[in-house]
Each structure stands twice: as C-alpha cells, then as structure tokens.
Amino acid sequence: MARRREDRFASADEAGQALGNLVTSDTLPPVSITPVSASRVQEAAPALAAPGKVPTSAKTVAVLPLVNLGPADDEYLAQTLTEDLVDLLSVVPELRVRPRGQTAKMDDAARDVRELGRTLNVDVVVDGSIRRIGDAVRIAVRLVTVEDGFQLWARRFERSPAKVLTVADEAAGAIARALATEHAAQPRQGTTDSVAQELYLRGRFLMHRGWFESTRHAVGMLREAWQRAPSDPRIGGTYALSLARIMPAEDNGGETTREARAVADKVLAMSPTQAEARVALGLIHLGASESAAAATEFGRALAVSPNAVEALDAVGRLLAEAGRPEVGIETLRRALAIDPELSQARHTIGRIYGLFADIESFEEAMGPFPEHPGDLVPYLMTRARVLLWSRDPERAKALLPRLSDLALSPYARASIDGLFEVASTLTLSPALRPKIDAMLSLDAPFAPRRLCFHAQLRVEIKLATGDVEGAMKDLHGADAHGLVDLVWLDRCPLFDGLRDRAEFVAVRAKTAARAQRVLQAIDDAHVRFS
C-alpha cells in the first residue's frame, strides 16, 4: 500500500479486482504491507454504486439525513428511513449514491441543501423531515437539483408506524422516475401489526448503533417483533443477525447459536435473497471458526446486497487476517463509508497498522477516545495490544491516568486494567496471573473464535513478559481453535527471533492452509467491492 494518495487504489473496486492478482499458492509467503498514512475514512472511501458498470451518464445523488421534527425518542424513525432510502437508491443502475458516512453529520434543520450538494459534488440532493403526530407519522421528502435549486419532485406522506418503511419504497421509486432511471427494487411486503413494526424499527436502530450492549437490548425487541410477525422475513432476518452478533459472548451452551441458525434458515426458506439472514449464517460459521464457510455466506449476502455492512466488515477482517491486508483495509473503509458508527472496522484497521509498526497511521485510524462507553473496551483492548507488541511501557504509563476516570463494568475494568498493567511494566505479577488465566480461559463455554482470541492475547502477554514456553503452549491453543490470522503470525514483533522454532513453523503451516481456504472461498464468491 503506497504512502502517497495518488499511488494507492483509486477505489475499492480496484482493490477488489486486485484479489485475483494476489498470491494463492498452497504455501503462503510471509505477509508484507507498505505503511500508509491512514487518512480520514470518509475522504478515502469511494462513492458507492450498484454492482456492474456504471453508465457514464449516471447521476450522483446525496440523501441528507431526514430531520426529526418530533421528540428525541423518534430519532430512530428518521435514521431508519434515511438508511433505507440510501440502500434502495444504491441499487438503481443509473444512480451513484453517496454513502451515509459522507452525509451523517449534515443533519441541521437549517441546512443549505444546495451548498451541501456542492460540498458533496453531486447533481441532486434528497432532503426531508419526519414528525409523529398522534398515531400517524408525517414525512416530507423532496428532490432538489444542486446547480439551480429546481425542485424535481416533492411529496408529503402520512402513515401509521406499521407502514413507515413503505415511504422509503415509494419515495425511492418516485425519485428514480424523476431522474429518468429504472427503479430496480420491488416494494417490500411486511407485517401490518403496528406493534411488531414499531419493535422492529426500534430494535433495528439499536442493533446498528455499533456497541454490544445496544445489540443485547435490540435482541429482546426483535424477538417480540418476530413472535408477533413470524412470516415477515425482514423482521426475522434482523432478529437472526442480532442473535449472531451477541453469540460470541454468550455462554448458554449454544442456545443463542441454535436459535440464530433456526431463525435464519426459516427466513431464507421464505425469502432466499434476504441478506441479513445470510450474514447471520456467516457470523455463526465465523464464531465456530469455520472461516471458509463464513466467507461463502458473506459472499452470498453481498451478491444480493452489495452494501450489507456486516458482511463487508467481516470480509474485510478475514482478508486482513488471511494475508491480504491492503484489500482488507479497503473493504473495511467501504464498510465505514456506509456506516461510520462501525467502530469495530476502525479498530481492525488500527490493529493492522499496529502490526506493521506504523504508529502514525495507527493513531489516525483509532482516533480519540470514543464517547460511548460500549465502544471503549475494544478501543482500549486494541491500544493495549499494540503497546504490548512494541514493548513500550512509557507510552502505556502515559495512558494510565485516563483509564482511572472511565466508566467501565467490573469485568471490563478488570480486563483493561490487567492488560495495561502488563503493558506498563512488562511483567506478569503473581497476583495478576490467575486473573489473566480466568479472564482469558481456553476452557470457557464460548464460541471457538472467541477462544482463539483468548489464546492470542495469552500468547502476547507471555511473550511480552518473557515466558516463551508458556506462549508456545498457548499458540497451540489458538491453532486448536481455528486460527486464520496469518498476518499476526508473520508481522507481530513479539514473534521476532522465534519464527524458526518447530512449534511456530508447525502452527504457521496449518494457519496458512486455513487462510488459503478462506481466500479461495472469497475468490469463488466473486465478491465485488463497489
């Protein structure tokens, strides 16, 4: 990956095409990457378009966030409708739609839509507002040209909460016709149960906010919605996805996994092209360390929904682990362009730069401390790992005062404090050792991928504190739980001087074979990134 912007991939499409040009031999060579400044994601992200060649006459469109004119509790309605409009217009063949990441902050009710359109370099802008009035929701949408401010189309809708999403369908079709293009999407059939629809909208909003506890709250709402409307594939697909997202942290004997799979299978039997159910199946496979099968499911999801952000995020992570870090970063940037709240993608990009000792790019990718408590733990975990890799106790000590003021749960507090204690002292005290063993147990009833992650952290802690034999034992634990992170093996500085050891060579060979199967599955799925 070149340092100069002009030498990088011009778009994520070029990155996707580069998949076929990268190494696909059975024995993968050590991974390399050229450090690059991690410029702001929204600047680097390409404009999104439907699969296939975009006509030269394609019009560029920006959908500004619908302004919520009602109480703050109704913000989920405005955001959900905005997301739906972007998704629906993105599959219209002759439109190029700016991703939500480029417009998310343009939500001022007093905004100048033409000026924002010029800033975004688009031909037309979709603008609107939403207000709940009693038992009805009133939505106003208009289409304005940037050049002369001409209003091409406008309409006011009034719907019950159960039929709010039909507005996005109707508006997208009308906008496509106003721009003289063919509307590819078909109207969606959903439940008429107003309670189920309200629960679905609220649950979907929470699930996409980007932190784990929000998804846990969403599961309850979506479960009730699904129970009320068991023939609505949209609700079922979102419910299955929410279950698959919390699955790695559940220790209920696989109950969550079984429920997620059952719901996803039922949804796909009703609607084979339901993307969220496909993503759910992919996450189930990923949690079980069946990474190649996961890649296949993610590819199927992207084939029917190119902007399926969860699939893009997962594929980006797999690419970055399995030996194609450059393409992985481009894919993760694509996901962030669609959903800037996807903090996990930022952390993965930061982790990649950390592995390649590009600290400047790491800092740019990670950004400042996140505002929401739920995003703090993975953010701090990534920072602690990079500090361990670099064996830089002074930088770790400099962060300690910040940690004491953070609002963390007791378990999160113990985990983060333990990691930073090791990073700031490069020792594993007798008092801390049993706590680390308990927190990062390899015998806990968690999904294999999480146990693999536990093993990787144990390896890093032991290598940073000089316990090479203990680290090699835990490396075998990572291998036993399906390690595919070839980049970690090849680039983590803690392995320097150890890569000729027989234990390491054996684990790397098996990891390389698994990584090759993942890359082959991605190639076979013909995943496109634009």
Give a verbal description of the structure.
The longest helix has 23 residues, at 502-524. The chain folds into three domains: 5-44 and 306-524, Serine Threonine Protein Phosphatase 5, Tetratricopeptide repeat, CATH 1.25.40.10; 57-178, 3-Layer(aba) Sandwich (Rossmann fold); 194-302, Tetratricopeptide repeat domain (Serine Threonine Protein Phosphatase 5, Tetratricopeptide repeat), CATH 1.25.40.10. By secondary structure, the protein is α/β, with parallel strands linked by helices. Strands 1, 2, 3, 4, 5, 6 and 7 form a seven-stranded mixed sheet that branches. Helix 7 packs antiparallel against helix 8 (212-228), helix 12 (291-304) packs antiparallel against helix 13 (309-322) and helix 13 (309-322) runs antiparallel to helix 24. It is built from 24 helices and seven strands. The two termini are 19 Å apart. Residues 1-28 and 34-56 have low confidence and may be disordered. A hairpin with a 5-residue loop joins strand 6 (136-145) and strand 7. This is Adenylate cyclase. InterPro entries: TPR-like_helical_dom_sf (IPR011990), TPR_rpt (IPR019734). Keywords: TPR repeat. It comes from Labilithrix luteola. TPR repeats lie at residues 275-308, 309-342.
Topology:
Blueprint: H1 12-17, H2 41-44, E1 48-49, E2 59-63, E3 67-68, H3 75-90, E4 95-97, H4 100-103, H5 113-120, E5 124-133, E6 136-145, E7 151-159, H6 165-178, H7 194-207, H8 212-228, H9 233-246, H10 255-270, H11 275-287, H12 291-304, H13 309-322, H14 325-338, H15 343-355, H16 359-366, H17 373-390, H18 393-404, H19 410-425, H20 433-439, H21 448-464, H22 468-480, H23 486-491, H24 502-524
Parallel strand pairs: 2-4, 2-5, 3-5
Antiparallel strand pairs: 1-4, 5-6, 6-7
Helix pairs in contact: 3-6, 3-7, 7-8, 7-9, 8-9, 9-10, 9-11, 10-11, 11-12, 12-13, 12-24, 13-14, 13-15, 13-24, 14-15, 15-16, 15-17, 17-19, 18-19, 21-22, 22-24
